[in-house]
Each structure stands twice: as C-alpha cells, then as structure tokens.
Amino acid sequence: MLFPGWILSGRIGPHVVALEAVLAIGVFLALPRRRWTAFAAGLTALGAGTVSLLALGDTAARMSLARPLNLYLDVRLVRSIGDLLSGTLGDGWGGWVLGGVGVSWIVIVFVAGRALFGLSGRGRSSRAARVGVAMVILATAAIPLRWLHPSGVALGLTGVRVVREQSQHLARMLSERERFAVEMAAAERAGPDETATLAGLGDRDVVLAFIESYGMAAVEDPRYAPVITPRLEAMGERLAARGLHIVTGKLVAPSQGGMSWLGHGSLLSGLWLENQLRYDLLLASDHATLVDDFERAGYRTVALMPAITLAWPEGARFGYETIFAHADIDYAGPPLNWVTMPDQFTWSFLEGTIRRESERPLFAELGLISSHAPWTPILEVLDDWDSIGDGEVFDRWADAGDEPEELWKDADRVREHYAMSVGYALDAMASYAHRYVDDGVIVIALGDHQPAPLITGDDASRAVPVHIIAADPSLLTPFVEWGFVEGAIPDPDGPEPRMDAFRGWFLSAFAGTSGPTEP
User: CB-hemisphere CA count at 13 Å for 245?
Assistant: First the structure.
C-alpha cells in the first residue's frame, strides 16, 4: 500500500521508479496531521499531477511527431489534436477525449492529495514516522546510484527530468528570436536578385504539390516497398510512354508525423522552420518567399488547400493572389473521414478550374491529403477524368472501408492502409500527369513529412521523395546536377539536403541568380 502504481513511470526502455514519489510518501509518513499538512498534500499532488500530464504529453509527442514535448510551442496544438481525434474517431469525439483527460487529471490530483494527507500521522505510532524517515534517507542516498542498473535507468528523478527539459526548451525558445533574425538576415544578403524573371521556365506553369505523409519510409521500408515501388515503376513507364520525363531526389523535412506547414514554409522561404516559433517569426517578417519570386516574374499565384476549413491568415501573408480553401472549392462529394475530398478531385479542380482560367503563367501550390491518417477508406483512381465533375462520382466511397476506430485497434492493419493510401496518392498524380502534363507545365511533387514513428519506427530519417515531371528534359537538368536521378525511384544513397535549400537552387537554375547552387 505504500507504493501505489503512480510511482512507476515509463519511458522507451525499462520502467523507472520515480524517487520523487518515494520521497513524498516518506515525508508525509513522518509529518503530523495538521491543516497545513493538508495544504502541502494538495500542493504536492497538484505538482505531481502536472508533471505526470507533461510526461504523458512528452510520450504522445515522441510517438506522433518523433520529438520531445516543447510546452512553449505545443500548447497551441491542443485544438489541432482535438480536430484530428474528431476526424479519426468521429465528430465531437476530440472534445470528449480532451475533456475526459482533463477530468481524469482533476480526479487523480484529488485522490493523490487525499492519499498523501492520509499518510500523515495524527495518533499514529512512531513506527510510521520512522518508516517515513527511512524512506527519505534511502531515496536520497539512491539518487547518485540511479545509473548503476545493468539494463538502464531503474531509479529516476522523473519529475525533475520533465521540469528540467521544459526549462531548457523555454530557455532555448527565448533565444530563438535572435538566432532566427541572424539567419534571416544572412539569407536575405545571399538571396536572389529582385530583378529575376524566372525566364528559364519559358512561361510554363509550375505546380508544387505536397503529398501528405509521403516519406522515404514508404519507399525503403520492407513493409511498404512492395506496395509503393511497383507503383513508382509503373508511373515512370507510363510517363515515358507519353513522352514525359521524370527525375527523383530527396529533401529533408523539418517535422515528422504532422505540422506540415513547417515543410511548406521552409521550402517556400528558404529558411529552416524546425519549430512553430520560427514559423511565426517568418509570418511576422517581410521576408520574401517563392510566392513573391513568381509574382515578381509575372505569374498568377494560387494556393489550393482542401484541408483548410478555418480562417487561414497565413495564406494572405505568403501573398497568394488567389486561395482555394475548402469553402472555396465546389465539391459535392462526401468527406472521407478526416479527408475533405480525394486527391483525384483536387487534381481535377486544378486542371478544370484553375489552370483553365489562368491567362498568365501559373504557380500553384497544392495540399494533397488522401494519404492523411486515418487512412480509410482506400479509393480507386477513376480512368474517366471527365466524369469527375463536382465530385458526386465519389459518393460510392461515402461509407466504404473500415471505421477509423475499428481500423486503429490493429497496428499492422493501420500500416497496411498507410501504404495503400500513399499508393492511391501516387496513382492519382501519375494519372493526372499522364493525361494533362504537356510542355506548358512542370510538376514538382514531394512529401510534406514522414509519417509518425508508429509507421516508420523510431530511427527513420526525415527525408521525403521529390519527383519532377516535365515534357522538356532540359528543365530537369538542374535537378540532376543537384543529385536527382532519372526515373520515379529515389537513389537510396543520394544526397539529402534540407527543404530550405530548395528556393535558392530553383532560382539559381531558372532565374540566373547568384543564390546557392550546391546541395
């Protein structure tokens, strides 16, 4: 009874006995029962409950985003977590789950406070006090010995570790503004010539398409390669039969498992946006991006973002001439769990509405979301693009596939569906390119980030594939010089530069600027 379950804390690896819990139990065994003891018990339980909640958040961040919790940045993600849970489990469930966590936390703090106060000893024998003092002495003595366990840390200062890590994150974030300002100033000094015209593109349309959760794990992991590799090979053959050319390379994304806007922003701005603060600082600055580069060159700039269902002031900051968010897209088909509309419709809308109406050359950024979790249902690519229209043709998949809450009970089936959903996204892109890509357009398609560690494992890199499709092979020469290879399958040993390098390379190749040219 002296060692309730909450003194055990888990991390990746062996269980840890939290010495702070042993100290707390020992102290309250030795204390008299007074009114101030009740206050101290409540305060201790509140601290322990808060630290436990932070530890739970740290575990969730490591599992979903492959990084530790950063409270300074991540508190604003609570709403996004609720939206994702609602999309996965059903409407409204996100709020209920988060509310349940909050209520559970209150109950645990209350029960722990009562339990600690109950240990204090009005009328208790002196034996309890002696046991408490002994526990405090032994726990204190164990602190310097906690690294001696043969298979890892068996004794730990779990609460101290959590508080220390969050304090370190806070200190780093407080100095992040200065570091980012220095990097932004350096990038602007080495940036492109503002008179650049992108003449090397020959007034061709440029489509920049981000494929959700398409990372190198989909190509290299033996669990997914049997599904993805044949599709990539078929894509290359199909495009070659049309007289089109494709080269493929890799870029490293700043995030994993989510926060895709960091990858979008890094590639567009030429700045490494590895956390939300850097992204916010970019938005608050007047730093130019690829959108400005294309606008200056006379292009019409468009963002096609079917997943944006709320206000998106970031789009206005990036300077797109036109933004097509979910409410701006004439889609009459069904939502497919979290996915508001399938990728094939997004490609069809790009061609039938946006490109058709553009009298000037077009730069369009697309967010392709069919491969977003929960990865159900899995669609088929329609051969008849003319039948897509307003999307009613997708009604046949309204109730298809497993319910997310059923699918996610089986991790192996989740991984199978992940591979199939990425396969669909690639098939839809290949079909679009086969039908619509000509000498008037160049397609740049890449993953926005690797999926969560549940899919990749804990040691995966953050590299994503990048495919460039064009009818004129000379447009692909700069990419080959950067380390891209012919075909749709990336070289596993090829270079892996970061996404923030892309803007400088691209402008150097097609605008003749003095920006960076080496990966």
Answer: 16
For 274, how many CA atoms within 13 A lie in the half-sphere containing its CB? 14
For residue 97, what are the CA distances in angstroms to 52, 84, 93, 405? 17, 11, 6, 13
Collect the ranges in the chain with pLDDT lower than 70: 1-17, 19, 61-68, 70-98, 121-133, 135-157, 169, 191-196, 512-519
List, as own/partner pairs, every contact residues 401-408 make where C-beta atoms lie below 8 angstroms and the sequence separation is at least 24, other chains included.
401/376, 401/377, 402/376, 402/377, 403/376, 404/87, 404/88, 404/89, 404/90, 404/337, 404/374, 404/376, 405/88, 405/89, 405/90, 407/374, 407/375, 407/376, 408/88, 408/374
Give the tens place of pLDDT for each residue, 344-370: 999 999 999 999 887 899 999 999 999
Give me the phi and psi of 504, to 5 degrees please: -65, -45
Which residues face 16 on adjacent strands?
9
What's the token pair of residue 75? Answer: 């508190």
**Residues 195, 200, 204, 205, CA torsion sign:** negative
Q: Give CA–CA dist 223/215, Å, rounded.
A: 13
Burial 242-266 (b: 16+ CB within 10 A, else e): eebbbbbbbbbbbbbbbbbbbbbbb
**Residue owning tokens 């995030």:** 255
- Report the alpha-carbon angle 254-256-320, nearest 5: 55
Domains of the chain: which residue ranges? 5-170, 190-511
Q: What is the CATH number of domain 190-511?
A: 3.40.720.10
Asked if residue 223 lies in contact with residue 465, where contact means CB atoms within 8 angstroms, the answer is no
Q: Render the burial of 208-217: b for 16+ CB within 10 Å, e for the rest.
A: bbbbbbbbbb
Determine the Cα angle at 36 with ends 32 and 40, to 5°.
95
- Report pLDDT digits (tens) over 224-279: 999 999 999 999 999 999 999 999 999 999 998 888 999 999 999 999 999 888 88
Peptide bond into 150 cis (omega under 30): no
Structure tokens at 481: 């010089």
In our burial notation (b when 16+ CB lie closer than 10 A, e otherwise), range 366-380 reads: bbbbbbbbbbbbbbe
Taking the C-alpha atoms of residue 55 and residue 11, their distance in angstroms, rounded to an integer, is: 9
Quick: pLDDT tens for 43-96.
Answer: 877 877 777 777 777 777 666 665 667 666 666 666 666 555 555 555 666 666
Spacing of C-alpha 89 from chain mean position? 19
CA–CA separation, 470 vs 345, rounded Å? 22
